[in-house]
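Much of our argument rests on the idea that a fold can be written as discrete symbols. The amino acid sequence and the backbone structure tokens for this protein are reproduced below:

___
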Amino acid sequence: MNSPAFDHATLAAFVDVMNSGSLTLSGRRLGITKSTLSRRLSQLETQLGQPVLRRQGNRLLPTEAGLLFVEYARDMLRLAEQSSLALDDLREAVSGEVVVKVHPVLSRGWMATQARAFLDQHPQTSVSLRLLQAAPAGPDAQAVHVWLGELSACGLRQESLGALARGVYAHPDYLRRYGMPAHPSEIAEHTWVDLLGDTDAGVTLLHTVHGEYHTALGRSRLRVDQHTIHADAIANGQGLGLMPHWMAEQRLKHHPGTLMPVLQPWHAAPLPVTLLYPHGHLPGRLRAMIEQLRAGTPAAWQRVKDASTPETPH
């Protein structure tokens, strides 16, 4: 047996009367006459084969069938609204400015590439890239964010893009002069390049066989607050430092021989990469940028997130 096709206006009339309990109030809200409203409800009852409302005094009360069907009616109206919005989105040209706020580590290589790809695909848009020096602390309805590191609740949707494994690096010349550490306990004998003071209490390294080892660090004669300067200092032979493997690999493509991994296969805990964007219905340009960032996520980030042991470069 075929299911009846319910008219949108009839469903809307039924739901409104269920909410108001009055043909007069609902007719006024919907902008239709009481007789038209009554006729639509009669058509619905004919389709269902049973009454959905009964009169008690001056009020209309739902029957058992009415209470059951009203939830389905609301679902059908919501689905119709969602499909209408989706079709509107297809007609909507992806245009206008997209603001992307991004962690400095991800800005020069990865995000710049994603921005170029987005602009090539959507010629009616422009992109404004802004560096995030701190994690988002509150909702921002106008931008997409990409953050590297831990996050707390900030009123934005948080979606994992992966994670960056980290390890200790040095310039080969530094290691020739001062020796290659064979165990994390030997790090304290070396000069350490400190980033943002985040290793003042030492560093914890992980090993698939030997587990976790926390070690004090050698003296830090250079403390920096920018990841690029930090990488420059390590690559210039000023000491050991902790870097994301992915970042080291990108640097080695342009400057071969300037970095060497130390203490493999010891590694630090991976840093999560998180995409943040507003809740609710988003403009087409923001949705398009979010799709670009998802599609442009390096496979290595996903492997690190999914694997129990992060990979290290060879």
Summary: Residues 96-163+271-306 form a domain with the D-Maltodextrin-Binding Protein; domain 2 fold (CATH 3.40.190.10). Residues 136 and 154 are 6 Å apart (CA to CA). Confidence is low (pLDDT under 50) at residues 308-314. The first strand starts at residue 53 and ends at 56.
